[in-house]
Amino acid sequence: MEFTAEELWARVLEMMRGQLQEQTYRTWLSGTVAQSLTESEILIEVPSDFHVEWIEGRFGGLLSEALQQLLGRPLEVTFRSTEEASPLAIPAIEVVSPTVAAARSAGAAASVPRPSLNERYVFDRFVVGNNNELAAAACRAVAESPGRVYNPLFLYGGVGLGKTHLMHAIGNTIHGNDPTRRIAYVPAEEFTNDLVACIQAGTMAEFRRRYRQMDLLLVDDIQFLKGKEATQEEFFHTFNALHDARKQIVVTSDCPPKDIPGLAARLVSRFEWGLVADIKPPDYETRLAILLKQGVDDHLTLEPDVLDFIARSCTSSVRELEGAVIKLLAYSSLTNQEITVELARTALKGTFGSTPPPGAARSSPERIREVVARRFDVREEALSSKRRTRDLTVPRQVAMYLIKDLLDYSLVQIGNLFGGRDHSTVIHSIRKVEEALATDDEFFQMLEDIRHEIDRPE
Ligand code: ADP
Ligand code: MG
After folding, report:
1. 156 alpha carbon – ligand 2 mean position (Å)
2. Is 30 exposed, middle or buried (0-12, 13-18, 19+ CB in 10 A)?
3. How far is the CA of 170 from the centre of ligand 1 (A)?
4. What rounded mean pLDDT belongs to the chain?
5. pTM score, two decimals?
């Protein structure tokens, strides 16, 4: 029987669907698209590199079997990542310097090279919160009237907070409104490499012409220009040429212009001509909104308590937030377990980089004891007393557990904090709490509340 690539793949997917858990299927296989079919091979596009690795490793065997069954002969299956429209994949931004753009348009010299922007990075997918309101509004304004408001626009903020996303969104909007506009997106490092290459090849005139003919120049991560005087010099001239011609310039950095060490004062002052807007880490509400939005966009459904858990635990950046979801999906799929808060806690343990788990941000033995005592309505000193009534035993165990969990004190240290108790008593207490956590949902929730209470500023 003759199949087209799509038909064959549709059948394979049907078979896989019958064999895998729904969630696993949806996470890994539903976004796959057959590209081509030859005698010996079928080529499948998947949303990310992560998917390639994962599908090959985990479903490679099953897929080969399914193909064998359908065709009556073996067929090799090859995966390729599109990195576009990917379910929560961390998108690899295609870096296109004007050199590449120029090369691409070679042969069609008169036509405007299509700007190479990540199509996923659009305003509609960008969640606006208190942390990024000004930056987002400025970007929209610039996208609607390039070269007329805020020029240059300088965005700064920590890693993974959406600077690149906003920059591409500007480019995508401008391109959408007028495809003849010449747009260059260039990471500062790329600008430098390009410059060096042109200096070596003796094609500086070409370099200048290329950059200076742009209608929109997006330079990402300008902090990379620190200490690179020749590049800064060249950028300064490019900047002036474009600015004089009322062409829009957008620049991002990890800090404000004046804090970039080794950035020439005149460049700093140029950047300050326009608008300098910062992006801060998202607050809880924004983090939750981002998770919800991405869930909708990517057809993923996670329970509200799981989303809440991730939004609370993952505090440093949006990129980390996305990474956490991918990791959780992978873990759930690998272990064939349903996604619950407990599973999330296990799967994501230690993944929040320098971000402390809930409770750790402000914790100290004193703080933990204070919050626990208040929660159980007992006096803090009573936690160290020798009394063993139940009203004291449970809060004492909880406080010991949290000190171990959040501060990783030794058993002996913990014993000492509680009136010189012996380390076996401490172990026993911690075990008790662990048991209760595993079996008693209400207890689990109470402990979550205490953790957040510990974090809350007074
Ligand atoms: P930066 O350039 O600041 O390091 P990115 O723009 O690369 O950060 O953002 C990291 C990831 O987080 C991207 O996948 C981006 O789409 C996403 N992201 C960041 N901020 C938001 C937001 N406010 N709403 C939706 N997605 C966001
Ligand atoms: Mg970036």
Report:
1. 10
2. middle
3. 14
4. 86
5. 0.62
